[in-house]
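Assemble and predict.
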Amino acid sequence: MNPNFVKIEPKSLSVAIVGFTGECGKALAKEILSNDLFSRTLLIGRRKVDFDQEFYKKGEQTIVDFDKLEEYEEVFKNVDVIYCCLGTTRAKAGVDGFRKVDFDYVNNTATVAAKNGCKQFHLVSSSGANKNSSLLYPQVKGLAEEAVNKHGFDKTFIYRPKLLIGTDREESRVGESIFRALTKPFQYIAPTLLTTPIDTLAKAMLTNTFLNNKLSDDKNQLIENSMIFEASEIYEKFIK
Ligand code: NDP
């Protein structure tokens, strides 16, 4: 991680978490709202949720139809930063449903955001994303990354976490649960090898929001798992 940064004044920013009801979305919302990080925080999703935690009252829940996102342009006006945490699984949504959420809805979000002047777009993708893969999951993730990168935001950050841990997921994903149990020893021996704590990912996304990397003029930045950990440490040391 490049040590030369220019800090952005966070309070001046208006942000939106798209997919705020998911595990990544909730981790981000908690960090942002409980620390009053931004001037305005929109929570964009397909359904309204009654959260118990008090900090959620500081966010503005906004319900949209991701199939007709162009009809919600008003929502995206004056939003400086988008955190796109959308995603589903093939098991839950089928092949077409997975493509729809993980590619179409992500691209629809980037399209309407770019059209309305969003400056930074952060996409939670996945380790192994590869548009040329013959496997559905990495292929769709890779295609979504490519699509988002084409929108020409001032900065596009693509995160490639590994298995997310530290979630309080309500639905049971048997495969993920087994893998999580198997990876436990590695979380201590080689923390970046197989897993990504959900809070670590959220903090990395916030580091990149606040700091502009001076040496890298790249508009599009790919953040692999080890870089997620490094960026999170910067948040702990210098930002919070
Ligand atoms: P979650 O499944 O917890 O949350 C996904 C979000 O997408 C929720 O807000 C959900 O809304 C929304 N969503 C799902 N289907 C639809 C739909 N049909 N229409 C509108 N919104 C929808 O995901 P995570 O937080 O675990 O993951 C975030 C991203 O990280 C995903 O892209 C995932 O592929 C990726 N990733 C996940 C890993 C993991 O271990 N889980 C590992 C690596 C990458 P609702 O609550 O209404 O369903």
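The chain is about 45% helix and 20% strand.
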